[in-house]
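Table 4 source record.
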Amino acid sequence: MKGTVGELGEFGLIRELTSRLTTTPAVRLGPGDDAAVIAAPDRRVVASTDVLLEGRHFRRDWSTAYDVGRKAAAQNLADIAAMGAVPTALLLGLVVPADLPVTWASELMDGLRDECQVAGAAVVGGDVVRGDTITVAITALGDLRNSDPVTRSGAQPGDVVAVTGWLGWSAAGHAVLSRGFRSPRAFVEAHRRPEPPYHAGPAAAGLGATAMTDVSDGLVADLGHIAEASKVRIDLRSGDIDIPTQMSDIGQAVGVDPLQWVLNGGEDHAIVATFPPDVKLPARWKVIGEVLNPSALPQVTVDGAPWAHAGWDHFGEDEVDTE
């Protein structure tokens, strides 16, 4: 559809966006009423919310609207999976300037819809508002399916730490884009469209995971939340963490130790969890460390030593966002 969202108007834009959506059996009432109705047979709903701001979390010269939609959905649906729940629904709050092309908003919705389909969820409603800066606010919902949520506070000394999914790929892709390049494509695409292992979250809960989170702010930073909540020390073995040859090549080209990306880089939305040591983990999980009694304050160490580099902090004075 040609034209701008201002020319189309609020209700015309809503009709255009909702016409692109699909549904799932969990959606009892979708867009078009005062609120959506989602089945909750477990009688508990897992909920998470996040906000993406243009210029802070995405750039239109780096990512298409479709990319932004996929990324916005992925980072929220990954939070649901990291609780051990199955994603069911997503709500969108969208702020856009009046001169934004309608095609941009439509492609954003296509990205949200398609990522939801990967996770088994659906976009069920939301709101659109005129504003100066594009802002994408997402609320994701999930179903525990009669399982207990896997929180950050259950890690026990003696547990192993295991991860599934990519680590450092988004950060490496950001480094490539920051220098004006578009390849290696796999890393650039990992930055534009993360691929969380959604099914691994509920599966980990079934395997007896004691604590779990997705890697959104960096492996060390996110495991730090588990260490603090569980009052333990987590020690990572750098030699057990896979660093692809191409990532090493990128690091050499830009003068960065790729281990920095793997340990500090966020937005890959890998799933990291702690498990009792006797649990037999499927091949998709890689054991990369162990849970220990805290020697002092709860913390994450790497090869037995404190890791001095922090992950992403939205209010850190010296931080630069990964987008």
